Structures are given as C-alpha cells and as structure tokens.
UniProtKB/TrEMBL annotation:
Name of the protein: SRPBCC family protein
Highest taxon in the source lineage: Bacteria
Alphabetized SUPFAM superfamilies for the sequence: Bet v1-like
Gene3D superfamilies: 3.30.530.20
Length: 176
C-alpha cells in the first residue's frame, strides 16, 4: 500500500516539476523581403481575406468552410473557419492596425484544442522598392498543458508553415 502511495506521489511531483520547467510562453515568427514598396505590401496584407491566396493552411484544406463578419481590413473584422484535422476550427479577429506598419489579430482556436494567440504581420521599408514582412504569433502556455511543449517544437513545426506562406506571398506580390 505504501509503495503505491510513493509511486503516486512521485508521479505528481514529476508532473509539477515538468510544468514548472516547461516553456510558459511562445513566439514564432519568420520574415522575408518583398521587392515592392511598403505601402503596396501593407495594402495587400491588411485584408485578411487575401490570406486565402498565400496561407499554407488554406492549401491544407482548400474546402474549409469560412465565414466573415465585419469589414475586412478594419478593426473588428472576424474570419471564422472550420476545416479538416490539419486546420481545425477557429477564428481570427483584427484588433489593431497601424497603417504601413502592422496588423495585429487575435487567433482563437477551438478544435483540435482550445487556445488563444496574438498574431501579427509587420512591414518595414528596407529600400525604396523593398519591404521586410514579419509574420508571427505569440501566446502563453498554461500549466500543466505547457508540458507538451517540452516535447513539441512549435517554432520548427509552425515556422515551416510561415516560411512557405511568406514565400508564396512574395511570389504573388512581386508578380503584380
């Protein structure tokens, strides 16, 4: 009986220890230089519906159901989706736009698991006809689910998707 108690206590202690050392936050981003003026790049990026043209997740489920509320490219615009296991179910709401600088949005995922992240697209002129675009998202890993991130490298996994999307974005914008 005492052995079983010690085993249970050891398991609990291990879970608590792992939760304490696991990452509490995440920030994944990638950047690319687009050979177009910052105003042209930003005018395209601020429209969330344009993400359908370059988002890697749209490619993973081209048949996903989408619904939009509000006026695209304005604060309060919401894009909802329901897709396959690769894209899940969630919504993205524009929460702040700083003209020619950034579009900030809140990502709310409902399936396959619930989470919330702050997404961002930033632009910065790096020349007369060159713009650096940074695409990323950040958030908080709540305990004890943060233990999962000891074994899952979000930067590596999601970073590949960001790189693919940014490469498609560059191709689209530079062909216009």
């Amino acid at each position: 009986m005492m052995t079983a108690l010690y085993i249970v206590l050891a398991i609990i202690a291990l879970i608590v220890l792992l939760a304490l050392i696991a990452p509490k936050t995440y920030n994944v981003s990638r950047s690319i230089t687009v050979n177009k003026p910052v105003t042209e790049v930003f005018d395209y990026l601020k429209y969330i519906k344009n993400q359908d043209e370059w988002s890697p997740w749209k490619k993973k489920d081209p048949d996903m159901k989408q619904e939009f509320t509000g006026t695209d490219a304005t604060v309060g615009f919401v894009s909802r989706w329901e897709g396959n296991k690769d894209v899940g179910t969630g919504e993205q709401e524009i929460i702040k736009i700083t003209e020619n600088k950034s579009v900030e949005s809140q990502l709310r995922f409902y399936k396959p698991w619930e989470s919330q992240s702050d997404a961002y697209l930033t632009t910065r002129a790096v020349g007369e006809n060159a713009t650096e675009v940074v695409w990323g998202f950040k958030g908080v890993n709540k305990m004890p689910s943060n233990i999962f991130f000891l074994f899952f490298n979000m930067d590596k996994t999601v970073g590949k998707d960001f790189e693919e999307g940014l490469n498609d974005l560059k191709r689209i914008l530079e062909s216009k």
